[in-house]
Design brief:
Layout: E1 2-3, E2 6-11, E3 16-24, H1 35-46, E4 73-74, E5 77-81, E6 87-89, E7 95-96, E8 100-101
Parallel strand pairs: 1-8
Antiparallel strand pairs: 2-3, 3-5, 4-7, 5-6
Length: 102
């Protein structure tokens, strides 16, 4: 999907509408959970005696199908204000295979 390189939108730091430079960044992986979060996940499953209740486990890969995967990822757009140089993320991502800036 094509997105414009520049977009005039609201900057929460300047508190007014300004020009923003649009860009993407890589999403962090699930393994970037903090130590406390991992411990909480472990504790949550322990009390039932059934492991993590399948929250982090995956089943067998059958034939050619991708197990429990979506074909596209949600966009992760970042908007950088041209005046204050601060960056904020988009509110809601849309599913696209390829992001292109024109």
């Amino acid at each position: 999907m094509k997105f414009p390189k520049l977009r005039r939108t609201y900057c929460k730091f300047c508190k007014k509408h300004t020009e923003h430079k649009v860009g993407t960044t890589k999403k962090k992986s699930a393994s970037s959970l903090k130590r406390g979060a991992k411990q909480r996940m472990k504790k949550r499953g322990k009390c039932t005696g059934k492991g993590n209740l399948g929250k982090l486990s995956k089943g067998a890969l059958t034939k050619w199908k991708r197990y429990n995967k979506k074909a596209t990822k949600k966009t992760d757009l970042r908007y950088e204000c041209k005046e204050c140089k601060k960056t904020h993320t988009q509110r809601k991502g849309i599913r696209v295979k390829k992001v292109e800036f024109k």
